[in-house]
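About this split. The held-out portion is used to measure sequence recovery: a designer receives only the structure tokens and must propose an amino acid at every position. Recovery is the fraction of positions where the proposal matches the reference. Here is one held-out target exactly as it appears in the evaluation file.
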């Protein structure tokens, strides 16, 4: 890169909402990369800032008026509880937020005494935890936190308090608000831009006004020459466009670029010119190369026709410009930087009392990729045709541990979440060896394929390198369907691998799936029996059943006949495209199956009903499992094949 014009600066923004416990890593990656190329770059997390503004003394005070108006129109227990205790909410919110930021640990005692925080309807769930009423003197949270789990218990109570306040915000201001997604439905697989356009044209509400003020402050503070809006998920799109609208109103000439996981997945066939009323450029896939090209263009060093993977609007039409230039290799993308993000202000919420959920939503994990893309890239339910899966590139273990050490030095945090779709076992092994060689002390967790390369020896080595948890797909626990999915693992293998991780003291979470093409009721009952046995044998500690969704970029979506299904026609879509409906001739009622699977797994995680006949979880008649009750125990006894 040539010397930069003085004062030229890139501002990357994380729009609301992504997550609150730690920054989503895209701006950290892009900022680190741009700086490594000599380009001045800064970043701000407006998702965190918005929540901190709304859930502050001034924010909660300002909520009274819309809450009163809403209560007059539609009275509700949530609004009534809030208005009755409004002064206490105003008085307690700043100290509670500080506590959730890890700033005032001794407040836990007061919160736990249950006289400090006002308790709205969300606290009713404490009774559902199965303990006796308050008069009995028993602690309804004792089963989860015991007698000494002071901090966690208080964090859970403080989270219920915030959830009550979020309910008020939803009822009084905007029903689309959530802590980890905002107005998600407006963007998810939306064939038309109309709902978003209408929402953006509506008069700004309290949340919009707060976000506009934060955006203006960011512009003021950084005086950027280019703004990057990163939208990893559909739940960040609406607010990103609100931010863009504010920028356009304040600084009409300032170029804005949109990119990120949502764009890379859902906007590949974009033809909607109205999106360019908000942003000027939209880039696909890894941002590094398109951004270098765009910056050169904006600085007058490259013609517009030589942009890389970039949508623009020309004469009212969307045009895709893609000068084929190689991507920046993973080895050369530089080290992400968290510089500028307020790392001591993220919130450690403790919502669901599930250990894996806790890793996602609690703790200031640094997010890092071990490789770019997926080394396996065959699973037929996955978007294997997209760059973030198909372009597999690694970096040496030395480079990775250099990055890790630089990040620890910068952030002071030693926890890492490896955000790969499936971290490659060879790279993890090399990483563990390099960590051992240098004596680097970190904790880490991430997602893998439970493949047989993960031997007990390797799992031990990974545990020694700091691995505390692993998740992986067992998907539909059925050898027939695993083969159809091209997952490359069998149920017996998964049992041995998960057991090896668990025996090494690592928390194991299984991603499970139902509703895959051709899946029968018998397959589902058998899958649940396998899962039951995996819990019984101490192979997995946690799991979640997701309903299979067919996407246009996956092998099932691209070759449905190979999977025995037909796709429902997609509307002609100028905007987002991702999920596609399909017809499976098996005609199974997967909703009924899903109810049973979710109930069962929730109970298994709490050690309940693990011995019971799996048919007892279903509310419809189902056949007996064909799986032998000792099947997993036998697989574990066999030597690995
Ligand atoms: C790890 C992960 C998770 C984790 C952690 C999430 C988190 N908050 O950190 C968990 C399991 C919790 C998760 C949950 C979800 N996830 Co997820 N997740 C991922 C995954 C595998 C990696 C994300 C990551 O950290 N990448 C590393 C960063 C650096 O990459 P990046 O964000 O893509 O940024 C690069 C480029 O996109 C680009 N870029 C990014 N921003 C910008 C901006 C500009 C201006 C430019 C030019 C470029 C640019 O440059 C960056 C560097 O190259 C991705 C798939 C993937 N491989 O990327 C899915 C993915 C982002 N998730 C996805 C989804 C849908 C979700 C959920 C909504 C699922 C659900 N229904 O609950 C939730 C949302 C959770 C939340 N609110 O936080 C989708 C989003 C696609 C879409 N349809 O919009 C993805 C793409 C996977 C997929 N195809 O289904 N996820």
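Reference sequence for scoring:
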């Amino acid at each position: 890169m040539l010397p930069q014009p003085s004062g030229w600066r890139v501002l990357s923004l994380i729009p609301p909402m992504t997550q609150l416990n730690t920054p989503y890593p895209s701006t950290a990656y892009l900022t680190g990369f741009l700086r490594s190329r000599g380009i001045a770059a800064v970043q701000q997390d407006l998702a965190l800032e918005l929540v901190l503004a709304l859930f502050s003394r001034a924010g909660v005070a300002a909520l009274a008026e819309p809450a009163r108006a809403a209560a007059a129109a539609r009275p509700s227990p949530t609004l009534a509880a809030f208005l009755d205790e409004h002064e206490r909410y105003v008085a307690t919110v700043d100290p509670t937020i500080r506590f959730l930021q890890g700033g005032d640990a001794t407040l836990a005692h007061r919160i736990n005494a249950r006289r400090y925080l006002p308790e709205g309807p969300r606290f009713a769930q404490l009774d559902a935890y199965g303990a006796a009423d308050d008069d009995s003197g028993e602690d309804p949270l004792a089963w989860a936190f015991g007698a000494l789990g002071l901090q966690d218990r208080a964090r859970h109570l403080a989270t219920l308090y915030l959830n009550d306040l979020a309910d008020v915000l939803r009822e009084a201001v905007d029903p689309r608000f959530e802590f980890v997604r905002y107005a998600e439905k407006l963007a998810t697989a939306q064939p038309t831009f109309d709902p978003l356009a209408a929402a953006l044209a509506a008069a700004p509400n309290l949340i919009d006004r707060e976000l506009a003020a934060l955006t203006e402050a960011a512009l003021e503070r950084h005086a950027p020459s280019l703004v990057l809006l990163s939208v990893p998920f559909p739940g960040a799109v609406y607010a990103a466009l609100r931010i863009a609208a504010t920028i356009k109103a304040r600084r009409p000439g300032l170029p804005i670029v949109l990119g990120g996981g949502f764009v890379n997945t859902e906007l590949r066939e974009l033809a909607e010119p109205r999106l360019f009323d908000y942003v000027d450029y939209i880039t696909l896939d890894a941002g590094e190369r398109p951004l270098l090209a765009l910056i050169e263009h904006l600085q007058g060093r490259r013609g517009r026709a030589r942009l890389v993977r970039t949508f623009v609007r020309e004469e009212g039409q969307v045009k895709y410009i893609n000068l084929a230039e190689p991507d920046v290799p993973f080895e050369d993308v530089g080290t992400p930087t968290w510089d500028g993000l307020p790392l001591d202000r993220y919130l450690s919420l403790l919502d669901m009392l599930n250990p894996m959920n806790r890793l996602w939503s609690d703790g200031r994990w640094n997010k890092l990729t071990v490789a770019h893309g997926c080394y396996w890239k065959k699973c037929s339910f996955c978007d294997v045709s997209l760059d973030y899966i198909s372009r597999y590139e690694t970096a040496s273990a030395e480079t990775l541990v250099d990055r890790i050490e630089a990040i620890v030095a910068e952030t002071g945090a030693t926890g890492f979440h490896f955000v790969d779709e499936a971290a490659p076992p060879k790279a993890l092994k090399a990483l563990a060896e390099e960590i051992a060689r240098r004596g680097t002390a970190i904790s880490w967790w991430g997602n893998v394929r439970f493949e047989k390369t993960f031997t007990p020896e390797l799992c031990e080595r990974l545990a020694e390198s700091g691995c505390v948890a692993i998740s992986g797909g067992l998907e539909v626990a059925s050898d027939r369907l695993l083969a159809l999915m091209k997952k490359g693992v069998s149920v017996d293998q998964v049992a041995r691998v998960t057991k090896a991780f668990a025996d090494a003291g690592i928390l194991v979470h299984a991603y499970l799936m139902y509703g895959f093409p051709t899946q029968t009721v018998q397959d589902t009952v058998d899958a649940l029996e396998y899962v039951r046995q995996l819990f019984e044998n101490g192979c997995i500690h946690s799991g979640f059943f997701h309903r299979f969704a067919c996407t246009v970029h996956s092998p099932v979506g691209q070759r449905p006949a190979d999977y025995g299904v037909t796709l429902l026609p997609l509307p002609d879509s100028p905007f987002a495209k991702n999920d596609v409906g399909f017809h499976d001739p098996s005609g199974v009622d997967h909703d009924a199956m899903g109810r049973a699977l979710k109930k069962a797994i929730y109970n298994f995680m709490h050690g309940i009903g693990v011995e019971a006949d799996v048919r007892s979880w279903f509310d419809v008649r189902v056949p007996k499992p064909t799986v032998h009750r000792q099947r997993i125990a036998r697989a574990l006894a066999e030597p690995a094949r």
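Annotator remark: Residues 18-19, 24-26, 29-30, 180-181, 228-230, 232-235, 257-262, 264-266, 283, 286-288, 290-291, 360, 367, 369, 383, 388, 419, 421, 578 surround cobalamin (CB under 6 Å).
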